[in-house]
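Dissemination and training. As part of the outreach component of the grant, students in the summer workshop were shown how a complex can be specified as a set of sequence lines and then modelled as a single object. The example used during the hands-on session is reproduced here so that future cohorts can follow it. Participants entered these lines:
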Amino acid sequence: MGNTLKKVIAQSWIYGALTPFIIFSAAPFYVMLVTMFKRSHDLFSPTNNPFFLNEPITLEHLDLLFNQTLYMKFLGNTFLVGTAVVVITVLLAVPAALSLSRLAGRWGESVGIGIFLTYLVPPTLLFIPLSRVVSLLGLQNSLWSLVIVYPTFTVPFCTWLMMSFFKSIPKDIEEQALVDGCSRTGAMVKILLPLSVPGIITVVVFAFTLVAHEYIYALAFIQDSAKKTIGIGMTTELVRGDVFYWGALMGGALLASIPVAVLYTIFLDRIISGMTMSGTKR
Amino acid sequence: MANVQLIGIKKHFGGVKAVDGIDLEIKDGEFLALLGPSGSGKTTLMRLVAGLEEPTGGRIVIDGADVNDLAPRERGIAMVFQSYALYPHKTVFGNISFPLSVEKMPKAEMQKKAEWAAGLLGIGHLLDRMPSQISGGERQRVAIARALVRKPKVLLMDEPLSNLDAKVRHTAREELKLFQREINVTTIYVTHDQAEAMGLGDRIAVMHDGTIRQIGTPEAIYHDPANTFVAGFVGIPPMNFLEREGVVIGFRPEALLPAEAVPAEESMRLRFIVERVEDLGSHRLVYGTIGGTKVIANLFFRTPIAEGEERDFAVSNRDLRRFDLRTGERVRP
Amino acid sequence: MSTRRLFERETFLAPLLLSPVAVYMVLMVGFPFAMAFVYSFSNVTVGNPDFHMTGFGNFTAVLGDPVFRKSLLNTFIFTFISIGLVLILSNMLSELLTRQFRAKWLIRFLIMMPWTAPIALGTIGYLWFLDSVFSPLDWLLRTWGLLGKPHALLGPMSNMYWLGQPGLAMASVILVHVWRLLPLATMIRIAGMNSIPREIIEAAQVDGAGYYRRLFHIVLPLLLPVISVTVLFSTLFTFTDMTVVWVLTKGGPPDHSTQVLASFAFLKGIQGGDLAQGAAISLFFFPVLAGVAAVVLRIAKKAVVT
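and obtained this result:
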């Protein structure tokens, strides 16, 4: 007990040094939390402390958010696009990664690097020609435009991530399955895929969070209020000229941020190792 | 059970000739050890038999049928990898029964067969464990049980003992031999450890640079090496070589004895300069030179000898082997 | 050869499994990428079906545009200051986060949140923080007596108008971008740090190297590849991004004082419908992209050789 206390005291300088960073990172989210429960009178009194509730809690902002805005619609759209993009990404990236890491010889490495390079091409270089592609396909102002465009950034990274995952599974195990009576494809489906479930889950989560994060393509391709995803919906529809529904805006931003952030954080280490590997090793 | 024939088998990787024209016949029920230094092509040869590599040339025949165009699963073989390659997401039972479940065998029969194979190897009590929860020796048994459960025509083993620690390895070797005799399956066993090859193999094929340099019983390989490579590779320490009258003369370290221990009329006398003596308990290794060439003698531990000494040694004529100076091939008198 | 055999062959299976991605990437990245070049040398607009190649016309027009020149300058300022700050702060933060302390998951979660939460939503928090009337920052400054009194340090007015004054608006945009990028850079650096074998650090410790000597002579040199990759990626990302700018200021205050290349390309190409000029503007990303790609390729080649 005394030991634990000593440890905590010995560590206290770390907490002290971390505090400014924590405040810097978390303050906007903290203020979102306070603001969404603040009464309007409290919120719009410039002399009131904006970091605490000076009056009793209110749910009026949340009521406005859920019942009088398109917030739920935005969430639904994001979820829909996210799900479709995840499915497409897994269907494209997993076989490609299998091919590049397991089947292809030396050219697999080069093609893998080539695919990773396409991940570097920024959306702001592509959005103008892609807006033409989208309108040629008759998809302007449709969620489908996002569904076909988003894999341009999810597929390269996820292919890369799965490649490193497949490489970590020993080749022996797959060959053992061939000897044990599987065909080439059978060994992949029965042995390799079950072993790569953790990798596939990472891909699913990462592709989904990337969709939730995306802003630029959505801004360029979607104009209908009812078809907007969460990022552009919140920043364009809930901000009308000078009239800001501050409480609803803050509540909506926080409530959508938390699940995405939690999911991302759980898989953070795996995602980061995928990113650094790109440059440092292999 | 079946015999295996390799006819002119070649495997080239780009410019590298991993296997360079091998003819070999393995008899029904035979235990053949493929012995060679690393890079000699022995694992590639086994993978060719398994169908994991496609030959650049030549034919592979198992049980009278040409299997060149068959996938591994269609060849009636089973294989134990050096790493054991257990499926980490399946239980021991799941691992052993996997080859049967691929054949879509009924559950009850599968259960019976898997239990038979597990019983054979004494791992019946481990069926519900995961591979990560059992020891290295147990993993090796699971891998063998999985290989046998389908009653393969040919069993292929790639250094299956090399991942075990020294003590377990010794008992595992003994068991492996007993057990192979019992089920009498044609076996090809790859190893770089000559003690394993000598102890296990009915015959040994010694490989070097993609070719077989000699094939024969352990006794023949040891006592009648076909060339200087085999003579120098097999035996610890290896055979001694001296150049005499335009041929290479070879003799085993244990054949080099103090002159008084060898009858004079049927032997070759040699002047041995002793440099160093290594006591190894049951015997002692004596390092020295004969006419400037380094040689080693392997003597009984009581033989009196001292470092720096110069003595007459001799090798009995029946222990002398002659090799061609240029090709290294055996010259029969 | 039968179909069944075909599926056993690597030379057939490998291209087969890869082809969907290859086709998709060519159609949705390669083709648009080429189109971006073609557009920038043409007269194409959204309403105009008539299509001519106009040579370097767009580039001369763009380079002659004072707004473009301002955007280019802003992009460089935005990128260099952001990356510099991120680099310094992430080195400090990762040194702290690799130590042992309690409640690590929660603290890490809070510190990572600017990167893990959608950036547009996080920036909404800053819209409130930097509001012209209700800004909590201004409230703090007023409470501390730095603002809103006759002789206060920052002036007698009651608000700073963060997003309304050119210099402050640029500072705000940079602040939010640093806020967002810091967690990523920190995590990459920590991952790099964990990949340094403990033995090397311990050997240095045994050899009598103190903390700072270890940091500057052992850790940082070994981290150099990771740090350079971080800088490379963050530079490309910052140079071509417009999200923070768009949500906070839309390139304003009205006089384009926070306009960057990406937002200007959006303004011209998407909102203005002048695809040709928009494409010409975004083509200025190409040298940066090519530079980063070249370095990545060099690193990849080295990794393959060794």
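The longest strand of chain A covers residues 239-240. Students were then asked to discuss how this feature might be tested experimentally.
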